């Protein structure tokens, strides 16, 4: 579980760093300063292989960890609902601070709000949860189809030239004073709320429910031994997901509603294929090293998620190195890999001396309304209560 979460964190960062490095992606246009074939190829690969894929995986893992939190509350003799409400509030506060200070594309606030719906449904039967998940996802797809077919994006979206002007101005703002940077983050709140309400929130809830059912059935406990199933998931997932991702990128990615529809439909297949491949790798005779590398990052995923945004501020903003608008798409991918590699080493070193990451510690204090006790590491590993959701 921790290794899969670490893998998801890498995929999310490859996408997020493009938004941290420039205001052009947020305005749905490409930076004309980077228009070589290599730049276009890098954008294509990120859109086809990463965009809208790893968010789904992270959401599934949130739902899975939700059940682990239920089990932990039961073992502690604590009432689950108040505990989870405090956890959601703590996550929302962390997310709000994340938006204002570090990165406007936060997902923590969305998770915190949608978690309330999951909490309201946490006693439903598996069949009901799966049916509800399917209905929600179908509704999202239908709404996208109707929007693509009936609505003229030009009515509520700026022209390409206007978007370029806005993106250039906002990129300069990213190089300004701390007040200007905070203003830039806050200025995207309206779009963040719209996106969360129309797409990210509903799809997250659908994945939360799937993750909850998967945890009830202890899917990740036995999945490594089901080689035939994993192979089928790979064959079907890659066969559907890779062409879908390529079509999404070729159609313009987020700039095209039809392209977004294609991605929403096909991304779960590619995500499932990624997970199946990773699990098979980790259960291969040589795969223990993969788990060893990824697990520490995933175990303190909340700290690392926030840390990635902190790195973004240091690298790209005016209060750091001021590289906004100066790094090409291929170098951004390389930079994401380098930063993640550093996180792998730092996470492993931190967990040799500490039980929780800094953000996990704060969230746990808020959740339990008490300072975590000095239990043994063996108890932590047994209870799974340390895992970030």
Automatic annotation (TrEMBL):
The chain crosses the membrane at residues 7-24, 44-68, 89-122, 128-151, 192-214, 235-252, 258-279, 300-325, 331-351. Keywords: Membrane, Transmembrane, Transmembrane helix. Residues 214-369 form the DUF418 domain. InterPro entries: Bact_Transport_Assoc (IPR052529), DUF418 (IPR007349). PANTHER family: INNER MEMBRANE PROTEIN (PTHR30590:SF2). This is DUF418 domain-containing protein. The lineage of its organism: Bacteria, Bacillati, Actinomycetota, Actinomycetes, Mycobacteriales.
């Amino acid at each position: 579980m921790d290794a899969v979460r670490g893998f998801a964190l890498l995929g999310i960062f490859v996408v997020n760093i493009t938004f941290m490095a420039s205001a052009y992606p947020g305005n749905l246009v490409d930076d004309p300063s980077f228009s070589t074939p290599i730049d276009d190829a890098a954008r294509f690969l990120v859109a086809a292989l990463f965009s809208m894929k790893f968010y789904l995986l992270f959401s599934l893992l949130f739902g899975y960890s939700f059940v682990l939190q239920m089990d932990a509350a039961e073992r502690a003799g604590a009432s689950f609902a108040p505990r989870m409400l405090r956890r959601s509030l703590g996550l929302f506060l962390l997310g709000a601070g994340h938006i204002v200070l570090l990165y406007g594309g936060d997902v923590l606030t969305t998770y915190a709000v949608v978690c309330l719906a999951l909490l309201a449904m946490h006693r439903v039967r598996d069949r009901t949860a799966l049916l509800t998940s399917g209905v929600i996802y179908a509704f999202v797809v239908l709404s996208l189809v109707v929007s693509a077919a009936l609505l003229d994006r030009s009515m509520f979206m700026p022209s390409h030239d206007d978007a370029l002007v806005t993106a250039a101005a906002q990129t300069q703002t990213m190089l300004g004073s701390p007040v200007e940077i905070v203003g830039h983050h806050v200025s995207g709140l309206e779009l963040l709320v719209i996106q969360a309400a129309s797409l990210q929130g509903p799809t997250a809830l659908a994945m939360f429910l799937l993750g909850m059912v998967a945890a009830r059935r202890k899917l990740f406990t036995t999945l490594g031994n089901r080689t035939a199933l994993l192979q089928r998931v790979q064959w079907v997932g890659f066969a559907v997901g890779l062409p879908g991702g390529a079509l999404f990128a070729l159609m313009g990615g987020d700039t095209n509603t039809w392209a977004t529809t294609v991605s929403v439909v096909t991304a779960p297949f590619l995500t499932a294929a990624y997970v199946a491949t990773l699990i098979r790798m980790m259960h291969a005779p040589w795969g223990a090293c993969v788990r060893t590398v990824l697990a520490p990052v995933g175990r303190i995923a909340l700290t690392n998620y926030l840390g990635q945004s902190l790195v973004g501020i240091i690298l790209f903003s005016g209060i750091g190195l001021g590289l906004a608008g100066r790094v090409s798409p291929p170098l951004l991918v390389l930079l994401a890999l380098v930063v993640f590699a550093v996180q792998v080493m730092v996470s492993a070193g931190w967990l040799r001396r500490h039980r929780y990451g800094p953000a996990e510690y704060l969230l746990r204090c808020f959740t339990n309304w008490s300072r975590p006790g000095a239990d043994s590491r063996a108890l932590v590993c047994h209870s799974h209560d340390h895992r970030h959701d």
